[in-house]
Write a structure and sequence with these properties.
Length: 198
């Protein structure tokens, strides 16, 4: 399999953590791309030019990190990171969605800052940044215990690290002790250490 990726992307990091947690790394080639991801040989893989994308040996393409993580979770060994059903399943999915929303807000603000000077919108940037902070507050209230590893906790921990990496001035740890504990515990795992954003 091939995983197309960038080192900093929080969406990619979810997939890279799952690959490691599920013992799949030996079966995958991780291919780092430079931004923007619009080279014709890559848009032939993912037409919208976003990372991550996973390509199987037979050429089947998976895009969108929730779908890729779900596929890898079923393929690999060890306990399921997405509990198959019941409330545990939906809780993990809800927290994954919340973490992805935090990541989306952070990535939008970064993308906006890369536009030419006159094209940037302080109004939109402000909305996205406020949304990011509100979502971090919800993540604090809903953060799970770190000992029950699942994709919800993984995504929230990744989102918190990414928010701190891009916006240190937000000081997300201040008054968010539950999210901090989750983040500290998961960032100590090998799968997280090996994928820390640069
Ligand atoms: N919903 C997608 C989001 C992927 C995404 O936004 N990727 C960013 C990198 S963090 C990207 O490729 N941006 C480049 C672009 O939009 O042109 C997922 O979960 O995989």
């Amino acid at each position: 399999m091939r995983l197309y990726m960038s080192i900093a992307s929080p969406f990619v990091r979810k997939c890279r953590v799952v690959l490691r947690e599920k013992g799949l790394l030996p079966q995958v080639e991780e291919i780092a791309l430079d931004f923007p991801y619009k080279a014709p040989d890559y848009t032939a893989v993912n037409p919208v030019g976003q990372v991550p994308a996973l390509v199987l040996e037979d050429g089947t393409v998976f895009t969108n990190s929730p779908v890729i993580c779900d596929y890898l979770d079923r393929l690999g060994s060890g306990p399921r990171l997405l509990p198959p059903d019941g409330e545990a399943h939906w809780k993990a999915r809800r927290l994954e969605a919340l973490g992805d929303q935090i990541n989306e807000m952070a990535v939008k603000v970064i993308m906006e800052s890369r536009r030419p000077e006159g094209e940037r919108s302080p109004t939109w940037t402000g909305h996205w940044r406020e949304g990011l902070v509100r979502a971090l507050d919800v993540a604090e209230r809903q953060a799970p215990e770190a000992d029950a590893l699942d994709l919800g906790g993984i995504t929230l921990a990744i989102a918190a690290t990414y928010a701190g990496f891009r916006y240190p001035e937000i000081e997300w740890r201040k008054s968010r002790p539950r999210l901090s504990a989750l983040n500290d515990a998961l960032e100590a795992r090998d799968s997280f250490r090996e994928t820390y954003p640069r």
